[in-house]
């Protein structure tokens, strides 16, 4: 019996060996899409959330609130004011009139979809769990640490400390679209760092100089969430905060992204031509809680596939540069709330904890 077939069969509870099933899933190198293609009608046990997590869903209120939508074509003082409010109150917002064409956005979504829907053997060429590999395909970075696997596959493109990747490092099927998109979103990231600097009362180049995400320090992940037979039992992506300064997300029209706001999960409705931006843990830390890095998640869905591309501006892990609350934001009434750290230290802790555990607690200064 092959690995995929063994995952399709539901074992009696007393015979369930989670580690064995996780290994079978990992060794298949076919990802979640491979399970769907094999014809499963029920979720393999490794994807089913624990009973306490499922029960806890009842504690969250439902709301029709919407995250702020910010028009980057407005006057600069209006944009700065709106960004400050959104980053402080929500940590999430959508941007329109951001300067990236629909052709580039749609091309990236189509390229990621084509990558994940190509022949399994072609994808396996990029299959790796090696953190040092710049371009790789896989499913669930925290597969053995999380309480339940997530219903998604991912193509990761990491620029590390380089300003660009050699084109032949990228999968041919999405190479051109990825290069165009990464270049355009990098420019948008520079603009947002400048605007957010001004929102904090700093010089426009302040955050960009601290973060050093450009030219290097960027990672792009192309997620593929197949249609799920039992979406209420699992998650597309578990609740988490982002280990970045800033994240820029492109999503299709399926929906499912939610942000936790005042104990309510708020649906971030897809808005054609927009991009979703959220504050990451590292920006919350260096802003000394002026901006917040909120918990968010992606629901599994009977409809699909859902395609999204997250661009993480995280800084260069190889540097020994020390980060901490920005001195200009501190005062007697607003002392530092976090320890200093390097990106290497932060990323190391990220890869040794489940995705649903925030990195903020690791560096919080106790009273």
From TrEMBL:
<dbReference type="InterPro" id="IPR026992">
    <property type="entry name" value="DIOX_N"/>
</dbReference>
<dbReference type="GO" id="GO:0046872">
    <property type="term" value="F:metal ion binding"/>
</dbReference>
<comment type="similarity">
    <text>Belongs to the iron/ascorbate-dependent oxidoreductase family.</text>
</comment>
<dbReference type="GO" id="GO:0002238">
    <property type="term" value="P:response to molecule of fungal origin"/>
</dbReference>
<keyword id="KW-0408">Iron</keyword>
<feature type="domain" description="Fe2OG dioxygenase">
    <location>
        <begin position="215"/>
        <end position="315"/>
    </location>
</feature>
<dbReference type="GO" id="GO:0016706">
    <property type="term" value="F:2-oxoglutarate-dependent dioxygenase activity"/>
</dbReference>
<dbReference type="InterPro" id="IPR027443">
    <property type="entry name" value="IPNS-like_sf"/>
</dbReference>
<keyword id="KW-0560">Oxidoreductase</keyword>
<dbReference type="GO" id="GO:0009805">
    <property type="term" value="P:coumarin biosynthetic process"/>
</dbReference>
<dbReference type="InterPro" id="IPR005123">
    <property type="entry name" value="Oxoglu/Fe-dep_dioxygenase_dom"/>
</dbReference>
<keyword id="KW-0847">Vitamin C</keyword>
<dbReference type="GO" id="GO:0031418">
    <property type="term" value="F:L-ascorbic acid binding"/>
</dbReference>
<dbReference type="Pfam" id="PF14226">
    <property type="entry name" value="DIOX_N"/>
</dbReference>
<dbReference type="InterPro" id="IPR044861">
    <property type="entry name" value="IPNS-like_FE2OG_OXY"/>
</dbReference>
<keyword id="KW-0479">Metal-binding</keyword>
<protein>
    <recommendedName>
        <fullName>Fe2OG dioxygenase domain-containing protein</fullName>
    </recommendedName>
</protein>
<dbReference type="Pfam" id="PF03171">
    <property type="entry name" value="2OG-FeII_Oxy"/>
</dbReference>
